[in-house]
Design brief:
- By secondary structure, this protein is of the alpha+beta class.
- The chain folds into two domains: 79 residues, Transcriptional regulatory protein pf0864 domain like (Alpha-Beta Plaits), CATH 3.30.70.1380; 54 residues, no CATH class.
- It contains four helices and seven strands.
- A hairpin with a 2-residue loop joins β6 and β7.
- The radius of gyration is 24 Å and the shape is elongated.
- The chain starts with 28 loop residues before the first strand and ends with a helix.
């Protein structure tokens, strides 16, 4: 707080407060990065998505949109932690043709989960077990379902339901 030295008719006082945000310890605050892209190839966008996920993005998706002059485009969206923003933006600027990225914080609710390995007649598979209140949900991992489909010759739904029962 400071009053200054010059004389005025009204009070000459300045009050400043320095506020700092604590780092999120619960892990539920995330950031969304978004970019509208109308001049990038599908192959480059595919590589960008793979690169973002490999670098630790919680999720990446594309939304078809229309831009100026009714040009078809995609809005590329990324969910990441605050400490990942810089590395995610680097991937976006290098792997795509974007020239700008919006970002904003979001909060999310995440179910407690654990990964398990189950043995089936076709081999091992990874499943995710999530809990909500007194309920348990079993979600087979896509790569495991795909591998067992190829190995067994069975369809996706059959393997998926079998893994849910085994979990």
């Amino acid at each position: 707080m400071g009053a200054g030295k010059k004389e005025f008719k009204q009070a000459n006082v300045l009050r400043a407060m320095i506020l700092s945000e604590e780092e999120d310890s619960a892990g539920d605050e995330m950031w969304v990065l978004e970019s509208n892209i109308d001049d990038c190839s599908g192959e480059a966008l595919g590589l960008a998505m793979e690169s973002l996920l490999y670098a630790g993005a919680a999720d990446v998706w594309y939304t078809p949109i229309f831009m100026k002059k009714n040009r078809p485009a995609y809005m590329l969206s990324v969910i990441c932690k605050k400490n990942q923003i810089e590395s995610m933006e680097e991937i976006l600027f290098i792997q795509t043709t974007t020239i700008g990225i919006r970002r904003y914080p979001v909060n999310r609710t995440v179910l407690p989960r654990e990964k398990r390995t189950v043995m089936t007649q076709w081999g091992e598979a990874e499943i995710k077990v999530c809990r909500y209140k007194d309920r348990e949900f079993i979600y087979p991992e896509y790569e495991s379902v795909k591998a067992l489909c190829r190995k067994s010759g069975l369809d996706y739904q059959t393997i998926y339901r079998n893994l849910q029962r085994e979990g």
